[in-house]
Write a structure and sequence with these properties.
The structure is a single chain. The protein is mainly alpha-helical. Helix content is 64%, strand content 0%. Helix 9 runs parallel beside helix 13. The protein is globular. The protein starts with 19 loop residues before the first helix and ends in a 6-residue tail after the last helix.
Length: 285
């Protein structure tokens, strides 16, 4: 009787080590996306213009509201526009850089995520670069423009600390919203039809941060503003920049902790991603 033949064990490719090789690979993915999306220039230009509409609508909505009132939740138009600018800049930039992770449910359902895991690159960076929506650059630029105009017209007494906060707060907002995109996307590792649930948190959170939290009340304000941390995207940093006391009675230093809140959100999102990937089972298993 012939002895069984033992085949050599196949070894999966190792992850590329951090360095020039990995950066070149990510750069190649980004370059391919840029070339493919800009191949039809007229269509790409139309997409750029069309994507500004969502942020323009947010600003117009606030202007319409102030057409019938002088204050909103105890804040003037100029003060509210600072919050609008912080929210719009942070969310639009995060949506550009990280927002396409919301395609993860489709990748899990179709098995495309299996191919991502087999490549010698990080799974999350690959997902973000596979379909980077460059058409959303215009929205991010417009959000930044709204913030700069709002800060210039708000009558802020500038100090070195407030200048630093004006730079740090939008970046912290980008990290916060980006973390939220990743954290909500990981639900698809357990429930593939979770897209609408994730959108209700991310896009709902964007709407929440557009206005002063004082217009909300009760458990809803407590849950969204401080339970989930949305108050630290625009409301609290705006108070610190404007030099206003918090109508809700929180101390002034709370307005300066948005970078710390963003780092906590990023750490939680990273942990949720690692646990989700370990929990993931291939479509063939």
């Amino acid at each position: 009787m012939a002895e069984p033949v033992t085949l050599p064990r196949q070894r999966l490719p190792r992850r590329l080590r951090p360095g020039a090789g990995r950066l070149r690979a990510y750069g190649a993915l980004l370059g391919a996306q840029a070339r493919s999306q800009a191949a039809y220039r007229a269509s790409f230009a139309v997409d750029l213009v069309g994507n500004v509409g969502a942020t323009v609508f947010d600003v117009v909505t606030v202007l319409v509201i102030f057409g019938v009132t002088r204050e909103l939740g105890g804040f003037t138009l100029r003060e509210t526009l600072v919050m609008v600018g912080l929210s719009a800049c942070a969310f639009a930039t995060a949506d550009l850089l990280v927002g396409n992770v919301e395609r993860l449910p489709a990748y899990v359902r179709t098995g495309l995520f299996d191919a991502v895991l087999l490549r010698p690159l990080g799974a999350l960076p690959q997902l973000l670069l596979m379909d980077l929506p460059l058409r959303k650059v215009s929205r991010a630029v417009f959000g930044l423009a709204v913030l700069l105009v709002a800060l210039a017209r708000a009558g802020i007494e500038w100090t070195p600390g407030r200048v630093a906060l004006a730079v740090a707060a939008p970046l912290a907002g980008v990290v916060f919203f980006g973390s939220l995109f990743v954290a909500t996307a990981t639900v698809s590792f357990y429930w593939t039809d979770s897209g609408e649930l994730a959108n209700s948190v991310t896009y709902g959170g964007k709407e929440f941060t557009t206005y002063p939290v004082t217009i909300f009340d009760g458990w809803f304000r407590a849950a969204f503003a401080y339970g989930m941390g949305f108050a630290f995207v625009s409301y609290q940093p705006a108070l610190a920049l404007l030099g206003r006391a918090d109508p809700l009675g929180l101390p002034a230093w709370v307005g300066w902790v948005s970078p710390a809140v963003a780092l906590v959100a990023a750490a939680l999102a990273a942990a949720a991603w690692r646990v989700g990937v370990r929990h993931y089972r291939s479509t063939g298993s």
